[in-house]
Amino acid sequence: MIRAFELAIRQLGDPKLRSVIWQSLLLSLVLQAALVVLAWYSLQSFASFKWGWLNDIVHWLGGGALSVLSLLLFPACFGIVISIFLERIADIVETRHYPELGPARGIPIWTGIWSGILFLLTVLAVNLLMLPFYILALFVAGLGVLLFYAVNGWLAGREYHEQVALRRMDRPEVKAWRKANSGTIWLTGAITVFIGTIPIVNLIAPVVGVAAMVHVARTLRPPAPPGRPFVPPAQQR
């Protein structure tokens, strides 16, 4: 898995990947800004008490909350970004490292975008539901941070693997592979989310995550369904 991220980071200088990186950067910034503006507008609308001092407290607390909220909601942007750029990123990675695979059948762009929207809504809903637990866990030696990475890593790993794997597999096969490799996929998602919380670096996290998942997908352990000969990942088309 570490090797997968190493290969992904090394390929960021690939001229074919640079335009994708800049486009995904722009989209990530726009989505992140939109989330923050929406949250700030909601806060301003809420802080309309007749006592000025109470409004000041809400604004003061809200400023800090927005910083935390923008961090919590950043993984929600990933789904939209990868749904638009996944095919190009995966093709570039596979062409360089796995030319023997040949062209993937791919997934329809609108299917990918819809999947990305569902992922965004799921991440928003789950993180809002988990927010009280994050806050409580912060008082236990930073457990809140670990909980955040665990929850969002599971969501991101599931989404990234599904989007990458559906290019070459049917959905039941994707599900079987995910079950057989749940730990590896979860850790890949957790590392991607961790990268997504590092300032500046987080803007290229979706690209790195997709590229790394392409490499990880080639090394996953087969589910070995009964009565069916198994084809190694490197030979699957």
- Biggest pleated-sheet summary: none
What would you call the structural class? Answer: mainly alpha
Residue-averaged pLDDT, rounded? Answer: 78
The number of helical runs is: 8
Q: N-to-C SSE series?
A: HHHHHHHH
Q: Which residues sit in consecutive blocks of at least 5 with pLDDT less than 50?
A: none
Percent of residues in β-strands:
under 5%
- What general form does the structure show? globular
Instruction: Count the E strands.
Output: 0
- Residues in helix, %: over 70%
> Between the first and last Cα atoms, what is the distance in angstroms?
22 Å
Query: How many structural domains can be distinguished in the coordinates?
Result: 1
What Rg, in angstroms, do the CA atoms define? 20 Å
Record keyword descriptors for this entry:
237 residues; mainly alpha; 74% helix
Describe the structure.
With 237 residues, this protein is mainly alpha-helical. The chain has one domain (2-222). It is built from eight helices and no strands. Helix 1 (2-10) crosses helix 8 and helix 5 (143-165) packs across helix 8. The chain is globular, with a radius of gyration of 20 Å. The mean pLDDT is 78.
Summarize this entry quickly.
74% of the residues lie in helices and 0% in strands.
Structural topology:
Elements lengths: L1 H9 L4 H32 L5 H46 L11 H29 L5 H23 L5 H10 L1 H14 L9 H13 L20
Helix pairs in contact: 1-8, 2-3, 3-4, 3-5, 3-8, 4-5, 5-6, 5-7, 5-8, 7-8
